[in-house]
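Final report, Chapter 2: Outcomes

The project's central promise was a pipeline that accepts a single protein chain and returns its three-dimensional structure in a standardized token representation, suitable for archiving and comparison. That pipeline is now operational. To close this chapter, we reproduce one record exactly as it appears in the project archive, with the input sequence first and the structure output second.
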Amino acid sequence: MLFRRRVELHPIRKLKEFFWPSSGWKRSFRYGWRRVWRLSGTPHAIALGVAAGVFASCTPLFGFHILLAMLVAWVIRGNLVASALGTFLGNPLTFPLIFLVVYEVGTFMMGAPAGHAEPDIEGMVQQAGAFDRLLPHIVPLLVGAVPVGIVSGCVVYVITRSGVEAYQSRRRKLLEERAQARAAAAVSPDMRELGMNKGDAA
């Protein structure tokens, strides 16, 4: 299997790697995108799946992002594997910015008074027990997550679909070139044999 580990990790190590990759988020992000490109399915379905993952990552439902992403992907007929991979866009590095924007949008939609106190989103995300500290602000976070998640999902859909279409197009062209090369290699011996037979007949 492509990109498969040579040595299987312990389940606890797998869980740790999932939430905080030892290789770093930048490398894991690149790896995730490569896996998205190589998924089997239409560019539309794959892009819908990733968009569902991004939408789920905008919600404050820590621990349920993948489940929510797959549920949304199933409803909109997106790729389920792509939806799980799409949740990687939400990680400890991006959550502070995501939830700050989500909170501001949510409080604005709820008509919060000017100068309202903002919670320490970054501290909540980075510290243990962060979800407990988010609970008092869960309503504006849930309200803001809907429009922010939809807009973010639409943007990522366009980017993902374009990338998958380009990758699949290059792959089809490469496979066609290889098939033509194999066909030419198979024809050449037959042509040489035919030429020898003509020479013998003469």
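Archive annotation: The chain has a mean pLDDT of 79.
This record, like all others produced under the grant, will remain available to the consortium after the project formally closes.
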